[in-house]
C-alpha cells in the first residue's frame, strides 16, 4: 500500500507540473504565426530591406519562407528608436532578419554571418592602400562617419575627428539616408573617405558606386571591436521558434552565403580577423 501511495504521489506531482508548464509552452508557440512567415522590417533601408523586396534581407526572408512553405508577411516600421517595441514585442511579427548578437531586446538565433565596419575610398585614389585607421595617410583627411558608431572612437584615438564630417545615426530612412549621402559626398569630393557598416556600405558600392573600394577594418587591435556576428531576432522565451530558425540557418548556410555574396556584403571569419572570399 505504501508503495502504491508513493507512486500516486509521484503521478499527481508530475500531473501538477505538466499543468503548470504546458500552458506557458502553448502560449509561447501560439505567438508565432502558423500561416505566414511574419517579418519585422524597415521599409526604406536600402540595400538591406525595402518595401518593394529589393533588399538582401528581403531575399533571405523569401528563402526562409520557402523552406517553411509559408508566404512572407511584413510589418513595416523605421529601424530606429522604438523599432523592436512596435514590431516584435507588440507581436505584430515574429522575426527580425538581421540583428547583432547579444542584444538584450531580442532573443538571438545562432549567427549566420559575421561582418565588419569598412573604409570606403576611390579605387584608384591615394588612400586605396589604407587598411587601418592609424595609417598616416589619413591625417588631415576629411572622413565621413556616422556619429556615435564604434569607428568614431578609433578615429578620435588617431586624431581624425577634428576634420571628420559627421552623419546622423538615428533617422527615418524614408526621408534621410546617411549612408547614401556619405557616398554621394565621397563621389563629389566633399569627403576623402567614408566609414560605414560593411553590410550597408558594401552592397551600396557594388550596386551604385563601382569606382569605390570597400576595405573591411579587421586590423584594429584596440577596443571597441569593429566586427559583429549577425543573427535573427525573436521574442524572449520563444525557444521552439529559435531552435527552428537555428535548424534552417544550419541547413541553408550555402544559400544564405550566396545571397550575401551576391549583394556585396563583406564577410569575415567569426573572430573578425580575416576576410572571407565567397563565390558569387
Automatic annotation (TrEMBL):
NCBIfam families: ABC_peri_MoxJ_2. The keyword Ligase does not apply. This is Quinoprotein dehydrogenase-associated putative ABC transporter substrate-binding protein. Residues 36-266 form the Solute-binding protein family 3/N-terminal domain. Residues 1-26 form the signal peptide. It comes from the Bacteria. Keywords: Signal. InterPro entries: Quinoprotein_dehydrogenase, Solute-binding_3/MltF_N. Coiled coil: none annotated. SUPFAM superfamilies: Periplasmic binding protein-like II.
Amino acid at each position: 500500500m505504501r508503495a502504491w501511495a508513493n507512486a500516486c504521489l509521484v503521478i499527481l506531482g508530475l500531473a501538477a507540473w505538466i499543468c503548470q508548464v504546458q500552458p506557458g509552452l502553448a502560449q509561447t508557440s501560439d505567438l508565432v504565426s502558423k500561416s505566414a512567415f511574419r517579418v519585422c522590417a524597415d521599409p526604406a533601408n536600402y540595400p538591406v530591406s525595402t518595401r518593394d523586396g529589393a533588399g538582401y534581407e528581403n531575399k533571405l526572408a523569401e528563402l526562409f519562407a520557402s523552406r517553411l512553405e509559408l508566404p512572407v508577411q511584413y510589418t513595416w516600421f523605421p529601424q530606429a528608436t522604438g523599432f523592436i517595441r512596435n514590431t516584435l514585442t507588440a507581436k505584430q511579427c515574429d522575426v527580425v532578419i538581421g540583428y547583432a548578437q547579444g542584444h538584450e531586446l531580442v532573443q538571438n538565433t545562432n549567427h549566420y554571418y559575421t561582418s565588419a565596419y569598412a573604409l570606403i575610398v576611390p579605387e584608384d585614389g591615394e588612400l586605396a592602400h589604407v587598411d587601418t585607421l592609424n595609417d598616416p595617410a589619413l591625417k588631415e583627411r576629411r572622413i565621413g562617419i556616422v556619429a556615435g558608431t564604434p569607428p568614431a572612437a578609433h578615429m578620435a584615438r588617431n586624431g581624425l575627428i577634428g576634420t571628420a564630417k559627421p552623419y546622423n545615426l538615428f533617422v527615418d530612412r524614408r526621408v534621410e539616408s546617411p549612408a547614401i549621402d556619405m557616398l554621394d559626398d565621397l563621389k563629389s569630393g566633399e569627403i576623402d573617405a567614408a566609414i560605414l557598416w560593411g553590410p550597408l556600405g558594401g552592397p551600396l558600392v557594388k550596386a551604385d558606386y563601382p569606382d569605390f573600394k570597400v576595405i573591411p577594418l579587421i586590423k584594429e587591435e584596440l577596443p571597441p571591436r569593429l566586427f559583429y556576428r549577425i543573427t535573427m531576432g525573436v521574442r524572449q522565451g520563444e525557444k521552439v521558434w529559435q531552435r527552428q530558425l537555428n535548424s534552417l540557418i544550419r541547413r541553408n548556410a550555402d544559400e544564405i552565403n550566396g545571397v550575401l555574396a551576391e549583394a556585396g556584403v563583406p564577410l569575415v571569419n567569426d573572430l573578425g580577423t580575416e576576410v572571407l572570399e565567397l563565390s558569387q
